[in-house]
Amino acid sequence: MTLPVTIIMIEDDEGHARLIERNIRRSGVNNEIVSFANGTEAMRHLFGADGSGLVQKGNALLILLDLNLPDMSGIDILRQIKENKYLKASPVVVLTTTDDSQEIKRCYELGCNVYITKPVNYENFANAIRQLGLFFSVIQVPPAT
Amino acid sequence: MLTVISAGSVYLVNEARRDSKWVIHTIEVENQINTLLLEVRRAESSARGFLLTLGPDFQSDHEKAVAAIIPALDKLTRQIGDNPAQREGIEKLSAAIETRLGQFSREMNYVKQGQPDMAAALIREAAAGDSTTTINNLANAMIREEERLFRIRTSNSDRSQTLAASMTGIGSGLVVLLALISIWLVRRSAGARDDAEIRLRDANLNLEATIDERTADLREANDEIQRFAYIVSHDLRSPLVNIMGFTSELEELGKDIFRRIGELAGVPAGGPPVDVADIPLDGPDKQLSADFSEALGFIKSSIARMDRLISAILSLTREGRREFQPEKINTRDFVGTIISSVAHQAAEAQAEIHIEPLPNIVSDRLALEQIFSNLIDNAIKYLRSGVPGEIRIRGRTKLGYAIFEISDNGRGIDPKDHQRIFDLFRRAGTQDKPGQGIGLAHVRALVRRLGGTMSVSSELNAGSTFTITLPINWNASNRNADK
């Protein structure tokens, strides 16, 4: 890993964000985590003021995305990320409460890399996040071109 | 009414005809009297002529006239036979005429015997005897009588004719009036009928529109409920993740805190603790730790229960939104597969499952699988402990429906709970088995969506029989159309 990977977390529920962060840290991942509580801010950060995504050129990103955001649909964010030439190579992990098979199918069709349902059972939740940490450590995150 | 009028007209016309007949009769009688008088005069004048000239022409003329008198008299007698006053007159008249005829024949005899003097004397005598005058007077009296009758009868006839005419006029007027009234009535009722028809058509259209509207409303309401249930159950999960997550975090914190308390109190620690209760503590600290873990235990079990309920609602709404695909199902093989998947539980419960011949049906495979596996699961789950279970699955057909019965010899259900068991989240009997009270609610919803019905018959400790009635040939249009 030549460049440190930045984890972008888009999650409106502060509690969830906190739990996810804690568990990522517990799994031994120490990358920088930038978190956003709504879609608009996250979009501005990802795509820049001009909306071209040029600001992220050359940055290695990993995006954790919740589908139920207050201001916009996570599906829209996913589509725009995967349609942007600078961002489409960044892995996107959809982490949400929705376990509807239609929704999951749609996310994978749009190019999401991993889809994780937030289980209420905390152990399962922690396990899922830790496995995600494992996943982070193995995957080679290509820098945004 | 018309009959009365026609009868009246007919009667009056007949009356008028009779009256005119009488008028004609009177005229005829008058005529006949005149004819008679004429003949008498002719006889008289020809007799005189013969007396004066002795011409055979007069003689034959007289004879002809005399010959005509008697038949004319007879005819007159016949004609006036109805009138007693005239009959009297005719008797006198005929007596007078006979006298005159006698005189005639005597006159003629004298003339023929060449005694014109005698004849002339006779004529004079006759003239003196006034027989001709008598005849004339009598005849005139009769004519006057007949004229009187004529006047009366004419006026009668006129009256009856006028009556008949006015009757006919009134009748015609009434007929026209009735016709007009009928036309008006017919037109009015036709108009009313047209109005009613239009209103009926409007009402029908309105009704259809209303039904469509209501159906659309209901469909919308149903969709709304489905969406609502979905969103609510979904959004409820989100805070639950936090509650559960931070409760677990709290548990970890608790472990740390109590471990530290233990260290501070100088109780020797024996390796890293797995649970709060495992931390070596003494006295009141141990009590605190126990209370702490008890509270957390309740929170966690409640969260788990709530999560199961939410999941159940979610899966129910998801099930409600699924489109059914009818397909031909070999029911016996199908049930056999379900039973083989529960063979392990059945063996554990010492239950035997018997499948009797089952009718094949066309239905949704997944829905049918959930129906049967839920019922069979329940049958195995609620057996009486210590009694070997016996579960039977029977089937028959009736009027286009397949009736399946799943019966067991288990603990049974109190009749007062028969409705309750089909309600969501409700259960009955001893609560010694895990469950959310969802299975039967779900099964009944599925059966209804498949166009069928289900019922239960059961007694406590006497086993239960669940009966499902499903259409043999279910097709999507039956039910999806109004979903």
Structure overview:
- The complex is a heterodimer of chains A (145) and B (483).
- Chain A is an alpha/beta fold and 145 residues long.
- Chain A contains 5 helices and 5 strands; from the N terminus they run βαβαβαβαβα.
- A 5-stranded parallel β-sheet of chain A has the order 2-1-3-4-5.
- In chain A, helix 1 crosses helix 5.
- The two termini of chain A are 15 Å apart.
- The model of chain A has no long low-confidence stretch (mean pLDDT 83).
- Chain B is of the alpha+beta class and 483 residues long.
- Helices cover 71% and strands 9% of the residues of chain B.
- Chain B contains 11 helices and 7 strands.
- A 5-stranded mixed β-sheet of chain B has the order 2-4-5-7-6. Chain B has a two-stranded antiparallel sheet with strand order 1-3.
- In chain B, a hairpin with a 5-residue loop joins strand 6 and strand 7.
- Chains A and B meet through helix 1 and helix 5 of A and helix 5 and helix 6 of B.
Fold topology:
The complex is a heterodimer of chains A (145) and B (483).
Chain A: E1 6-10, H1 14-26, E2 33-36, H2 39-47, E3 61-65, H3 74-83, E4 92-96, H4 101-110, E5 114-117, H5 122-138
Parallel strand pairs in A: 1-2, 1-3, 3-4, 4-5
Chain B: H1 2-53, H2 56-79, H3 84-112, H4 116-129, H5 131-265, H6 284-321, E1 326-329, H7 331-341, H8 343-348, E2 351-355, E3 361-364, H9 365-381, E4 389-398, E5 401-407, H10 439-449, E6 453-458, E7 464-471, H11 476-479
Parallel strand pairs in B: 2-4
Antiparallel strand pairs in B: 1-3, 4-5, 5-7, 6-7
Helix pairs in contact in B: 1-2, 1-3, 1-5, 2-3, 3-4, 3-5, 5-6, 7-9, 9-10
Short description:
The complex is a heterodimer of chains A (145) and B (483). In chain A, 41% of the residues lie in helices and 16% in strands.
Descriptive key words:
heterodimer; A: 145 residues; alpha/beta; five-stranded parallel β-sheet; 5 helices; 5 strands; globular; B: 483 residues; alpha+beta; five-stranded mixed β-sheet; two-stranded antiparallel sheet; 7 strands; 9% strand; disordered C terminus
